[in-house]
Amino acid sequence: MPENEKELGRGIADAPEKEERTPAKPGRLRSAAAELRKLRSICGAGMLTALNVVLDQFSVMLTPTLRIGLGFLPASVCGWAYGPVMAGLLCAVSDVLTFVIKPRGAFNPVWTLVAFVPGLIYGLVLYRKPVSLWRTALAKALETVLVRWGLNPLCMMLLLGEGGYWFYLSTRLVKNLLLLPLEVAAMYVVLKAMQRVLPKR
Question: N or C: which end of the chain has fewer CB within 10 A?
Answer without folding.
Answer: N
